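User: Structure tokens for both sequences below?

Assistant:
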Amino acid sequence: MIAKLKGLLDETGEDWAIVDVQGVGYLVHCSAKTLSALGEVGEACTVHTDLQVSENDMRLLGFAESAERDWFRLLTTVQGVGSKVALAILSALSFGELRDACAGGDAATVARANGVGPKLASRIVNELKDKAGALPGGGMAGVPASAVSPAGAASADAVSALENLGFKPAVAAQAVARAQAELGEDAAEGDLIRVALKKAAG
């Protein structure tokens, strides 16, 4: 499987690019985000890829960063979301917006993408709300990324404690982030757990 291409940007279109790797041109379908990140034609570029094979088609998808590829793979696990729809979503929303929308059940935000109707948007947020928290993308719903301390800090231990009590990862992370925003960066683990429990239960 082709996982990454490193070469020269040979040509671009509305939703594709050709990457020249030692004289071989690879056609990769990309989001608007990736196309803008690849730079100018003739410049060196690196593209993370995902190869999709169906009965009558073989398609190489390209991403400027591996995080976008992770989101693409997650989105295409939802019934009704093919590569075109997934790229449209990744073109319309930042990782943070997408993660927050899934965590908060905000189908309207996902429906901003071309080709995504209200029904499909609802299915996406419902199916991904428990999985999206593990992927890159800024803060949880309504909480800035800066409110969450690095793993290994008291907040990470507090999240783990809430998960052990049966709370879903997305709910636990959101509750702890809100507790930390209220108590401050230096809050002790015990205080974070106490306040986060109230927020998660509420």
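Moving on to the next sequence.
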Amino acid sequence: MKNKIYLSVVIIFLIFCFVIFYNGLNSSNIYTPKINTKQKLPIFEAKDFYSNKSISSEELFKEDIFYIVNIWASWCVPCRKEHKFLMELSKSENVKIIGLNYKDNLNNAKKFINELGNPYSKNLTDKNGFLSIEFGAYGVPETFIINKNKTIVKKFIGPINKKTLNQIMQIIK
């Protein structure tokens, strides 16, 4: 009699564990922040990539044009893949591309730019990642389009490809 009760308790416990684990497999635990477009450009101070001098967002985004902020790193494989599209985009006179080098070794980042070319009109460093968080990024690469009113109008998560390049070109016309 005790063996049957013990066996029943063990079976009920195993069924309970199975149901919990099965439900856990079916629910996603991947966090994806909301893509908050129509957000005002954050006000910030950052260090210039080459001179290490401090520059404010007011100085950086003073012209009445479209800007693209691209968060990148030399250790990021998708950043390497998207770089040719940034180089193509940098030929447009309708936009300035601002690079934000994310948690990177400065020497490696400079080698990356020297090897692949510099599409950025200005490049900033984000050693601790705080500035990227202010923009709403949670990884690299991420790209933000900022309109003439200094508002983020579009965010691209992941590397730019031919399709997203065409979308960007349509926006900045």
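User: Anything stand out in the second?

Assistant: The chain has a mean pLDDT of 89.
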